[in-house]
Amino acid sequence: MKILVTGGTGYIGSHTCVELLENGYEVVIVDNLVNSKREVVDYIKEITNKDVTFYEGDVCDKELMRKIFKENAIDAVIHFAGLKAVGESVQKPLMYYRNNIDSTLTLCEVMDEVGCRKIVFSSSATVYGSPKSLPIKEDFPLSTTNPYGSTKLYIEGILRDLYTSNNDWSIALLRYFNPIGAHKSGLIGENPNDIPNNLMPYIVKVATKELEILSVYGNDYDTKDGTGVRDYIHVVDLAKAHVKAIEKVLKDRGVDAYNLGTGHGYSVLEIVETFKRVNNIDVPYKIVGRRPGDIAACYADPSYAKEKLGWEAEKEIDEMCKDSYNFVKQHKG
Questions:
Q1: Ranges of the chain whose pLDDT falls below 70
Q2: Model's pTM, two decimal places?
Q3: Backbone phi, then psi, for 167, in 5-degree steps?
Q4: Which of 150, 156, 155, 28 is nearest to 89 (CA)?
Q5: How many structural domains is the chain composed of?
Q6: Catalytic site residues?
Q7: Given 87, 93, 209, 230, which is the most exposed site by the fewest CB atoms within 10 A?
């Protein structure tokens, strides 16, 4: 079985490619390298000792997508490609709508043309907006607090409409909570090209003294210590869920959404303190104002994914913090 992975050199995409290859799938990657690096392809090959086919380009480029499907007998697609910074999306909403939605429309149009109608979509817990209660279940009301989240919600709607129009489609909507960590080899991990928007890469850049101090956005939320609470999940656990989702879409038709999280919430300061403890390193921080679009707390009820996909997260927070730092130490300088 051959799987096309859009955004396959990115953080979650690269780990998913590894898990796919190690489970016997062939992998084709398309990525424009806007927020990733070409050598990730080599790291994926090194980890798995298997080959991958790589195309550098944009999923919005319909002729490129047609070329990829023409040159490869693709059985299913995992669609990661997209811009993903909440704060940037608030400042540049049109860029987010254009890129994230246009790429999905282009991809689905070409998939429909060639009769490949099996897709796993990289969605997000941001589609729940500011939830009225916790933990979050898949049938909660959907809303968003920022343009990034809105693109995910709109794309989920587009994919549901696609299935309504043609029941040959098989679609899994994977709503991620907060992926951190890195592959145990230290070869691949989260390595943003500029100032990080997510907590863990920010922490490690401070730990390695690349950045002077960690900014903690708000300590006046209604949480245990006033800082934001999130459901942090090891990226390898998350990648394994995609393999389960591919198994599902290859076997069944329909469209369904799944929460991918651990079911446990940790505050920003709890993550900082855990990172300091397990890695025996200081991470100076300062409290600053809240970021627009952020919410107080967000964690999953992951029981539906366990029931329907046969998946659950296994790795604990200590391992997530160790693996994150191990990756950065290997790639520093």
A1: 193-196, 332-333
A2: 0.95
A3: -75, 5
A4: 150
A5: 1
A6: 148
A7: 209
